[in-house]
Design a protein that fits this description.
By secondary structure, the chain is of the alpha/beta class. It has helices spanning 14-21, 78-86, 92-103, 110-125, 145-156, 173-178, 206-212, 215-222, and strands at 2-6, 25-28, 42-47, 50-55, 58-59, 71-72, 130-133, 160-163, 182-188, 225-227.
Length: 228
């Protein structure tokens, strides 16, 4: 079984969902430390032909807390901003209700909000992987780093662990091989699509991808990667 384990991010970029597409089971890594100024609570959308940051406000966020120990603060204007920026996008009518449902959540726990968000987007994109949250697994919580990842993989019966390119600096293939597992890294291929009349702005949130591509076009983009 192919498995990926990733921290939950706010409306992550296409490559995150390509990783989900590549595996049989996906684990939301919610009981690891929050990363300040990372992608857990912020991302970029298209605004006036350039990147515009969106940020989910948090209460007492700290790198000394796990992601599932942090709460969302309010109010914020993310949904209003998305509507303003994408109201004329070709697939706004189909995508905006998905986002409305996500932001209609009343649970202020950051990990649960992000988990729901990822599941909801995956449902829209037709991704039906087995789904877990690491905090609900019976792994050895005294472990950290690669050892903790290996523990999760063993608990779920993984035969193949797939990670993003940045993981090449974090993971060593030999401990995986010693446990009968293959270690691979996804490599997204360059992807472009029409964004209004502007020059293409890459590496934006999955929101941008869905606003400008129908479900069949998104499916093609989701398969546009290599494994190494």
């Amino acid at each position: 079984m192919k498995i990926a384990i990733m921290q939950p991010y706010l409306f992550p970029y296409l490559g995150y969902f390509q990783l989900i597409r590549a595996v049989d089971a996906f684990v939301v890594y919610d009981d690891v430390n929050f990363i300040n100024r990372g992608w857990i609570n912020r991302n970029y959308i298209l605004g006036n032909g350039e990147k515009q940051r969106i940020t989910l406000p948090l209460r007492s966020a700290s790198q000394n807390k796990h992601i599932n120990q942090i709460e969302i603060a309010g109010p914020h204007k993310i949904l209003k901003n998305i509507r303003h920026r994408y109201a004329k996008a070709p697939h706004f009518a189909n995508v905006y209700p998905v986002l409305e449902d996500i932001f209609a959540q009343t649970d202020k726990n950051l990990a649960r909000f992000l988990d729901y968000q990822l599941r909801h987007i995956c449902d829209h994109l037709g991704l039906r992987q087995q789904w877990y949250r690491s905090s609900a697994l019976a792994k050895d919580n005294g472990l950290s780093g690669q050892d903790k990842i290996l523990s999760i993989c063993e608990e779920l019966g993984a035969t193949h662990y797939i990670n993003v390119p940045g993981g090449k600096e974090l993971y060593d293939q030999y401990p995986f091989e010693a446990r009968g597992m293959t270690l691979s890294f996804i490599q997204p291929k360059p992807a472009t699509y029409k964004q209004f009349t502007n020059d293409f702005i890459p590496s934006l949130s999955i929101i941008d991808v869905m606003m400008f591509n129908d479900k069949s076009e998104c499916a093609v983009l989701l398969d546009n990667y290599d494994l190494a």
